[in-house]
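Try this one yourself first.
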């Protein structure tokens, strides 16, 4: 086996692999897991997401997705109304009626997700049984699955995790050795990664989820998968139960993270060292040059992460090691040590890591630290801005293409832009 040359410097410190974690279980500020539909319905192009919920769910999706009234979106809300609450209608019969009408109207739908939400009336419904019942009527034309997007059960990025976990049992079996990249990424980033894999001679390569229901990747004991997103713990476990093997690696944010991510894949597929350097080296150097001007604006500045997207630990690693920033506190909704072990090892020693949230206490710590930039959810941004703190919406880091070499400078700019705005406001 040919070793892959390490073209990334080793950590200069012990890291945070064994660092103590501040675990908080108090009031929390979190966005709804239904938000995942906003990017999933664009990724799986012949799927439809039917949320079973309230009018609030419908308003959330319409506002989050920015869908105009005359558009034909691939998501909708089956609203629990007064007749359902009063027991005048059987909710399962009503759901069957809505689904039948939807599929008659939209013959282009090849996969239908029934998505649970948090109203108590919805929680009482067994959507998994409803999906099985409806599948018997519409298979093979339409595959019908269910998952939860409830904010009670998930943070907002975990809507994708529960969706992909529901899909894993449906994936075809395979004995072929292959690579699976797991997690929704922008189409342009997927194309860039495909070119890198082609250059390295790695294949076949599948991306999960695929663009169409009929193209979902096969899985089996010879499948090697790597996560593109850090919030897919349940999906990873489901794939391992199907026999696939996960390749531990930092996540592909920034020049360093992307190189280490590709390095883990290249080692598994016995890529020659010289080939790896020739394919990856120029891309890494180009990304490093693009990052240099942003480092000049960010180096030495303090950053504070409130828990929201589960991207916090990889982003803190990127900002600390490549931008020279000082992470004061890195809060995350759930700390999956196994998935994040390579990231934690690269964080500066002594970084305060917190899991969960006690909002008032964390706000007090943030105010005391007076960081240069605060990464937080939409609900906290305006109040903190009014107190003179500079903020970055964490949801923007999910919706913007930030993976890979070519997007490294775009990722850095998401942090320099709020600082430049603040400077203009105080000038």
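Now uncover the answer:
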């Amino acid at each position: 086996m040919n070793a892959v040359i390490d073209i990334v410097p080793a950590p200069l410190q012990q890291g945070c692999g064994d660092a103590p974690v501040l675990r908080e279980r108090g009031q929390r500020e979190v966005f709804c897991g239904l938000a995942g539909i906003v990017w999933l319905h664009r990724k799986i192009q012949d799927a439809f997401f039917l949320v079973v919920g309230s009018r609030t769910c419908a308003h959330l999706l319409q506002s989050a997705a920015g869908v105009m009234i005359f558009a034909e979106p691939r998501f909708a809300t089956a609203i629990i109304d007064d007749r359902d609450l009063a027991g005048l209608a059987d909710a399962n019969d009503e759901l069957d009626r809505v689904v039948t009408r939807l599929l008659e109207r939209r013959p282009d739908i090849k996969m239908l997700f029934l998505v649970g939400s948090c109203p108590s009336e919805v929680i009482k419904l067994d959507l998994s049984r409803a999906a099985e019942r409806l599948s018997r009527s519409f298979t093979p034309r339409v595959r019908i699955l269910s998952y939860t997007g409830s904010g009670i059960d998930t943070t907002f990025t975990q809507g994708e995790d529960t969706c992909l976990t529901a899909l894993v049992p449906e994936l075809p079996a395979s004995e072929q050795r292959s690579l699976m990249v797991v997690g929704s990424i922008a189409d342009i980033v997927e194309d860039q990664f495909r070119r890198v894999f082609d250059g390295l001679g790695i294949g076949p390569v599948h991306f999960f989820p695929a663009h169409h229901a009929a193209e979902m990747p096969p899985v089996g004991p010879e499948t090697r998968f790597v996560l593109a997103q850090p919030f897919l713990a349940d999906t990873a476990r489901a794939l391992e139960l199907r026999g696939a093997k996960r390749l531990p690696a930092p996540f592909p944010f920034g020049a360093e993270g992307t190189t280490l991510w590709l390095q883990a894949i290249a080692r598994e597929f016995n890529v020659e060292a010289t080939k790896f350097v020739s394919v990856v080296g120029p891309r890494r150097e180009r990304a490093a040059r693009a990052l240099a001007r942003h480092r000049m604006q960010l180096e030495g500045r303090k950053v504070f992460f409130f828990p929201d997207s589960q991207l916090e630990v990889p982003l803190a690693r990127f900002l600390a090691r490549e931008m020279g920033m000082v992470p004061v506190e890195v809060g995350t909704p759930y700390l999956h040590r196994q998935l994040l072990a390579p990231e934690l090892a690269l964080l500066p020693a002594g970084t305060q890591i917190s899991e969960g949230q006690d909002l008032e206490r964390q706000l007090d710590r943030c105010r005391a630290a007076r960081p240069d930039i605060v990464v937080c959810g939409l609900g906290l941004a305006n109040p903190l801005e009014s107190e003179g703190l500079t903020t970055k919406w964490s949801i923007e880091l999910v919706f913007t293409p930030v993976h890979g070499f070519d997007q490294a400078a775009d990722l850095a700019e998401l942090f320099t832009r709020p600082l430049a705005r603040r400077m203009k406001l105080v000038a």
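Discussion: The mean pLDDT is 89. Residues 273-298 form the longest helix (26 residues).
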